[in-house]
Amino acid sequence: MRVTRAVVVMLIAIIVAIGDAHAAASGQSIHFDQANKVFRLDAAKVTYAFGVDDKGRLQSLYWGPRLDASDRLPPAVTPPKADGIDGDINRVRQEYSGWGGGLYYEPGVKITFPDGNRDLELHYQSYSIKGDTLYVALKDIERAIVVTLEYEMDAGTGIVRRSATISNQTATPVVIEQANAATWFLPRSRDYTLRFLSGRWAGENDINERPVQPGKTVLESRRGTTGMQNEPWFAVRRNDADETHGQVWFGALAWSGSWQIAIEQDQVEQVRISGGFNPFDFGYKLAPGASLSTPSFYAGVATDGLGEASRLMHRLELTKILPQAPAPRVRPVLYNSWEATGFKVDEPGQIALAEKAASIGVERFVMDDGWFGARNSDKAGLGDWVVNQQKFPHGLKPLIDRVHALGMDFGLWVEPEMVNPDSDLYRAHPDWVLYMNGRPRTEGRNQLVLNLARADVRAYVYNALDKLLSENDIAFLKWDYNRSWSEPGWPAVAPDEQKNVYVDFIRNYYGILQELRKKHPNVEIESCSSGGGRIDLGVMHLTDEVWTSDNTDAFDRLRIQDGFTQAWTPAVMMAWVTDSPTWVNSRTLSLEYRFLSSMQGSLGIGADLNKWQPQDFATARRLVAEYKAIRKTVQQGSLYRLVSPQNGSEQSATESVSPDRAHAVLFAFLHSSTENYPYPTVHLQGLDANAKYRIHAIAGTFDPRTPLVASGAYWMHAGIDLLMRGDFQAAAVVFDKE
Ligand code: GLA
């Protein structure tokens, strides 16, 4: 390219206008306007800016749709006095604050010093830029506590990653009682609605909305793990925004331990969103010279509604978060034995299932719980990761060899952080669990939680898994975690260090995953926790897929999956086809319906194939083949939630569009038709208006007058009429660019 003198002069003019400029090569840019002391990050459709005010505090200035490169943000200043009672610190839109100086809202960090002092005021010190990351150092006005904030904006989505590292540069230990990754401020307005996810076992991902009003909403887990009672995700929309229109701010935490996201509206109607470690029972003892890094908190802005907010999250996960990002492999079609055999696994039984699974095109055979120790029920065996000799007299090799001979790879269920009291491990090491001296040890599913923060427990767990993976040709681990913490004591360390367990446990969990992946790079891992109890951006960085819910009822799943995709990509959303009537609701659903529900995510089969009839195998064979042809679009395309299954809706529909818009897949479901109403016309979204798309149905039928080839504009505006009547009907239509 020829760079003319005029272009050079123009570029210099822009740089001079902005001040010190640091443009990163990767599509995002970071600028520091020296004169106004304003930091500005730009990428995709977003600008994020904050400045240093006259007292040295960092103030949020702007977070929203991208501004023009020539726009200069005015300097941050101390806001005018509102009353004579509260200090101005309660009105300042502080990016990250210490608890001190009379602050009444969520602080970034709260510290107790050994002399009893608990006041902390953080002022700007310096900044640096390394690669795509901006580092801003803050220091207490008197003590040697330095907090380094990180800001990194994703070039593709404009999503900002923030985290904080707290360094104790004093001569004594300190206790950190709260540590958030970030506080985000929304534009000043009363016009907001919060959306968040809640759930329970077999009922994950309920979508909730409530107006943002004075006061605070806390989303959290105090369970030591991510939990499914709230997911570590939020979205705040303008009141007039909906699925397809309007502004939405959203974000998610990358942490698999106790976490908190607080959405506050303060007394001058500013909305503050803070997130990080859950401060409940938190108390991290930090030695002199040591530092504590918070989890990362990712957040973004969408201008085209909640649908776009989800698509931006999905894109971030696919291109930045997942271990194989930016180009994750497609998920193989898997078979899992759990619903078919429960704990009654053995060599001939599993081989019989594997043969049947292979005949329908399954690519990965996974043996679930029951293969190890004295594991004949959930009452015994956890912790003893040795193959059960009665069930597998020749070890796992004959089964694995047979699975390979059938053209599939082999996966295995493990639950490494847990122990049954009835196990050899617990009999040998009763002190390896989380417990408090002299107190009852509360069991959940007859099991206790191993204290992974201990070096010896970490080594035991790593070695057991490493041995398993080294001695057997295993391609996949389903890593389960079937209870939350209770009595989270760590009696082996000093009383004032016991609460470090909240951080050290998770760090060791991540460390084991990292080391295993490094040593066994071909092994893929699923994060499971009694269903969807451990899904967050932290674990997603180290695992390849997640178990969505133990509830495999294909109709219930439509709602669960709709909630799931608010935050998480369908690429990792494991969905099995299981038996009908379902164990959950005794509901009878056709095999085709069950397939179509599961084909909206990453397809698996979990049915008892011994009970299938020849026509079931034929249906499955056909739909597995169809799925393989569309799965890249479903897993890695853009998801449009066309018709919501929420609030007792009689219909639902989703559409996935490949990134190049050459392919799209429509899934549509009818709960129950009433009073002779036809199925509403479905209008596609996200297609190339000018391109021609040819359609074919995978399942169900459309109006016979429908053109088989029409423009993207036609499918988006004229739409398609599906012929569905009755109860629990399903259809799927593929759109391929000509
Ligand atoms: C959990 C999982 C199930 C299954 C069982 C095995 O409940 O969510 O999928 O693996 O454990 O005990």
3D structure, described in words:
- With 738 residues, the chain is α+β, with helices and mostly antiparallel strands.
- It is built from 13 helices and 39 strands.
- Strands 7, 8, 9, 10, 12, 13, 15, 16, 20 and 21 form a ten-stranded antiparallel beta sheet that branches. An eight-stranded parallel β-barrel has the order 22-23-24-27-28-29-30-31, surrounded by five helices.
- The radius of gyration is 27 Å and the shape is globular.
- Residues 1-19 have low confidence and may be disordered.
- The chain binds alpha-D-galactopyranose (GLA).
- The site of alpha-D-galactopyranose (GLA) has 11 residues, from loops.
Question: Can you lay out the helices and strands and say which pair or pack?
Answer:
Blueprint (H helix, E strand, L loop, with lengths): L4 H14 L1 E4 L4 E6 L4 E6 L2 E7 L5 E8 L43 E4 L9 E9 L2 E8 L4 E9 L6 E9 L5 E12 L6 E9 L2 E9 L3 E7 L11 E6 L9 E7 L4 E7 L5 E7 L6 E3 L4 E3 L2 E7 L2 H17 L12 E3 L1 H4 L5 H13 L4 E4 L29 H9 L3 E6 L3 E2 L4 H5 L19 E2 L5 H17 L4 E4 L21 H19 L4 E4 L9 H4 L4 E3 L6 H14 L5 E5 L13 H8 L3 E4 L8 H23 L1 E6 L7 E7 L5 E10 L19 E8 L1 E2 L6 E3 H7 L3 E2 L3 E11 L1
Parallel strand pairs: 22-23, 22-31, 23-24, 24-27, 27-28, 28-29, 29-30, 30-31
Antiparallel strand pairs: 1-2, 2-3, 3-4, 4-5, 6-11, 7-8, 8-9, 9-10, 10-20, 10-21, 11-18, 11-19, 12-13, 12-15, 14-17, 15-16, 16-21, 17-18, 25-26, 32-33, 33-34, 34-39, 35-37, 35-39, 36-38
